[in-house]
Amino acid sequence: MYEAFYGFREQPFRVTPDPRFLYRNAAIDEAVAALHYGIEQRKGFLSLVGEVGTGKTTLLRHLLDSVAPTTQTVFILYPTVQFEEMLEHILHELGIPTDGGGKFIKLQRLHEFLLEHTRAGGNAAILIDEAQDLDARVLEELRLLSNLETGTEKILQILLAGQPELERKLAQPELRQLRQRIALHVRLRAFAPAEVTAYVRARLERAGGDPATFAPDALRRVAEVTEGTPRLVNVLCDACLVAGFADGARVISRAIVDEAWADYAHLSTARPAVPAVPLHPEPGEADARASTPEPAVQPEAEPEGPGMALADPDLDDGASDDTVVLDDPPPRRGSSPSSRARQRVVVWILATATTLAAASVLWATGPQLLALMR
Q: What φ, ψ does residue 123 adopt, rounded to 5°?
């Protein structure tokens, strides 16, 4: 929509994991080098961990495009399957027949293929995305799959990529054997503010546009609100370009970033604090609040009872259908719940005593009254 207006060949901030747009900084280069080393040197199990939206899938696709031509790769995007289904998919991707055999026969075929491929100078790697969703039994089967080896080297490399929940899953006692086999642990982090600026400009340039399309203060604001998460940066910058195109702005300003972020602020991990008092009091309300003396000791609120909700003074602007109306008059200023309860008990005792006294009088004078009536 805005490509021609800003001179782009394509959209610069798609959220798809396109390896052409992989931003290379020191941390990314280190991660790429470590994963290449782990696969080429046949280290067996590797792990790649990063928060949501930090570019794990893009990095995996870059690996698929950049490993040696002699390395056969299998990319698994849907880990929430049984091991038998995963095994069949691996065989299919490697060109191994899957019909006419059970699990043991399929494992034997895989072993024979890997041995022959290794003797020919080849390698094999399985890349599993969203590995935090793998069932513990599937992880154990993968550990057993790594037993396919020769006496001197691993013939199958397995890379587990996932969110920090993957590390917590691997820390379970029943998976300690698998955890001990992971030779390399690689982590991805969010970008620093300076890296966000370089990241945005690199994508603009890759798409054929002007790296200065975003003003410096706009880039600082993007880094601030997205906290350096690449996916959020992409989403926000794309929305900024749409808003800028609608306004006819050739350069994205901080004001446009703020306008666009208003629709995406719920994606951030930071939550605004709820103000204790209304931000804009009515005229005279502030003076009245200042002149009204507060009690020396604030009474403690009664515990919330079933079916009753405490209203938020900043959100409740009047009576609603859910408002509970109490029969008792409002308590006097400074009175506590316990004193009100004692007052109710005293009133009840006095009323009961009066009723009993009246009953006693009627009991004593009843016969005389009946005689007079006759």
A: -145, 165
